[in-house]
Amino acid sequence: MKAGTGLFSALTLFLLLGAVLTVTPTKKPIRKPTRRPGIPRRPSVPKPAEPAQPEPQEPTDFPPVILGLPSMYVDCPRECSCSPSYPNALNCENHNIRNIPVIPPRTQYLYLQNNYISEVTAEPFINATEIRWVNLANNRIHRIDKNVFEKVPALLYLYVQRNHLKEVPSGLPASLEQLRLGRNRITKIPAGSFSHMGNLTLLDLYHNQLSDSGIGKNTFKDLKSLVQLNLAHNILKKMPAGVPSSLIQLFLDKNRIDDVPKDYFDGFKHLAFVRLNYNQLSDKGLPKTVFNITSLLDLQLSHNQLASVPLFNGHLEHLHLDHNSIESINGTQICPYSLEADPSDHSMGPRLRYLRLDGNHLSPPIPLDVIMCFRHLHSIVI
Prior knowledge:
By secondary structure, the chain is low in regular secondary structure. It has helices at residues 2-22, 148-151, 331-334, 368-373; strands at residues 89-91, 109-111, 119-120, 133-135, 143-144, 157-159, 178-180, 202-204, 228-230, 249-251, 273-275, 298-300, 318-320, 354-356, 379-381.
């Protein structure tokens, strides 16, 4: 019985083992990877062109206005300073202001330099009838209303240098004593600009764009008290006409002047300083005796095309002839007095103290006749 049971168990185990060995595992079908359907691209639409931006103007952004300190004066503009030590002065300089504030009636000295003011109108000056001094230098002024000066009839000093003016302002008050218009863009002086200005002593038109056609024959006719005229650094080709004989200082450096009329300085009894540096003067355009002026003390002719030393008066003390084309110097010819005069009598000799000749075609030593003539010479550059 036990043997049969064992045989049956062995047979059952054999059949199960055979079934395990003969059954093959079912393979799962291999799926090929499928591509993801592509997302259709939208057609590119060109962006509309941005409108061209205008060129920025300098400065593109003004700095903020600088307010002044609190003041005891209720009429003191916020953008200015009013010091109790100087009750007649209104200090608005370096405050980045664009418009002139209302000027208090007590103001006599008005400082508006170094700002961003573009025009000067009459409104701020309605009650400022006591103003004596106005400084508008280094702004961006391109226009000054002629009615401004009707409000300030006692004005003595007007400084408007370093701005954008193209003409001399009109309606200037007859009281004016000093007018500074240097470093603007002035191309002409309108007729009558200086009419009735007999008190003007200083006129500065330095570094503008004035040509011969921009200055009329009678432009300076009424300036009977003028002492200094500065027309340096313009584009003049001729000496300005009608210059008043009251002048003491005449500055014409850095122009294109090539000729000085023989009688140009006739009638000048007080002229002491003449500057014609950096022009186009040659011997042909410079009469020999044109600078024989009794009152002349300082003559500057540097950086021209002179080949010889012009004659000059014995009262001259400073002579600048550097950077010309001078090849020789003859003391006998240029000496204002005879070399035979008594050397011990210094009062009779020429008064020349400073002579500059460097930048020419000269070589040391200095000719003896030059030393013998100019006995007061303290310095000579060769």
